[in-house]
Write a structure and sequence with these properties.
139 residues; Jelly Rolls; five-stranded antiparallel β-sheet; 1 helix; 12 strands; 7% helix; 41% strand; RmlC-like_jellyroll; QdtA_cupin_dom; Sugar 3,4-ketoisomerase QdtA cupin domain-containing protein; RmlC_Cupin_sf
């Protein structure tokens, strides 16, 4: 998949295997997930009124999944913003590079799972919004 900063996210439907014993969803490299997964992390126990994210990545793409509960993700490409409410464990939001993201409105007991293309690299992060806008202008 070619990288592009023109899109403000894409919902990806993940396979849902329905079973009376409990459902199962899978996400595989280069199948449902359009990149090789190098890192997986999750956030949980987010206090009411708090937010996560508040940054952009220069290179790392991510797929974000609400594996439990719900939360809202607002994406911003410097020209427009779009918000998504994630609340289905069989759907993920593909977030491309050069997109500012903020996650908030976490329900009680929510778990946010992130499948990341790259290993952690602090140099890949833009953590200040003004720096993000300046970075986009230089591209």
């Amino acid at each position: 998949m070619e990288k592009s900063n023109t899109s403000l996210g894409q919902i990806i439907s993940l396979p849902k295997v329905v079973d009376p014993r409990g459902n199962l969803t899978v996400a595989e490299n280069m199948k449902e997930i359009p990149f090789h997964i190098s890192r997986v992390y999750w956030t949980y126990d987010v206090p009411s009124g708090s937010f996560r994210g508040g940054h952009a990545h220069k290179h790392c793409r991510e797929v974000i999944v609400a594996v439990s509960g719900s939360f809202t993700i607002t994406l911003d490409n410097g020209r427009e913003k779009k918000s998504y409410t994630l609340n289905r464990p069989y759907q993920g939001l593909l977030v491309d590079t050069d997109i500012w993201r903020t996650l908030d409105d976490f329900s009680s007991g929510s778990v946010c799972l992130v499948l990341a293309e790259d290993l952690f690299d602090e140099d890949d992060y833009i953590r200040n919004y003004k720096d993000f806008i300046d970075y986009l202008k230089q591209k």
